[in-house]
Amino acid sequence: MAKTLQLNFTTAAGKHTSLTVDEPRADLTPEEVEAAMQEIIDSQVFEVDGSFLATVRNARIIERTVDELVKV
């Protein structure tokens, strides 16, 4: 089962955007994730259509299962 950590932000222009991290640590706490997201915002390294990330929307772990039917 594949896991992804999805970090959702709002930009200064009000647009929603997300960053994803493959295979996050299993023992992450909400406090750690929120602090990391705030560091990302404060660093201003990501820009979307000319606007920096401004606020944390939410974060979630997404799990998915892939069953290959045909593999060549």
Integer average pLDDT: 96
* Overall radius of gyration: 15 Å
Largest sheet: 4 strands, antiparallel
- Reading the helices and strands in chain order gives EEHEE
- The percentage helix is 10-25%
Tell me the β content. over 45%
In angstroms, what separates the terminal alpha carbons? 21 Å
Helix/strand structural class: alpha+beta
- What gross morphology would you assign? globular
Helical element count? 1
What topology, given as strand order, has the largest sheet? 2-1-4-3
Give an account of the 3D structure.
By secondary structure, the protein is an alpha+beta fold. The protein is 19% helix and 46% strand. A 4-stranded antiparallel beta sheet has the order 2-1-4-3, with helices on one face.
Quick summary:
It is built from 1 helix and 4 strands. It is α+β, with helices and mostly antiparallel strands. A 4-stranded antiparallel sheet has the order 2-1-4-3, with helices on one face.
List keywords for this structure.
single chain, 72 residues, four-stranded antiparallel β-sheet, 1 helix, 19% helix, globular
What is this structure's SSE topology?
Blueprint: E1 2-11, E2 16-22, H1 30-43, E3 47-48, E4 51-64
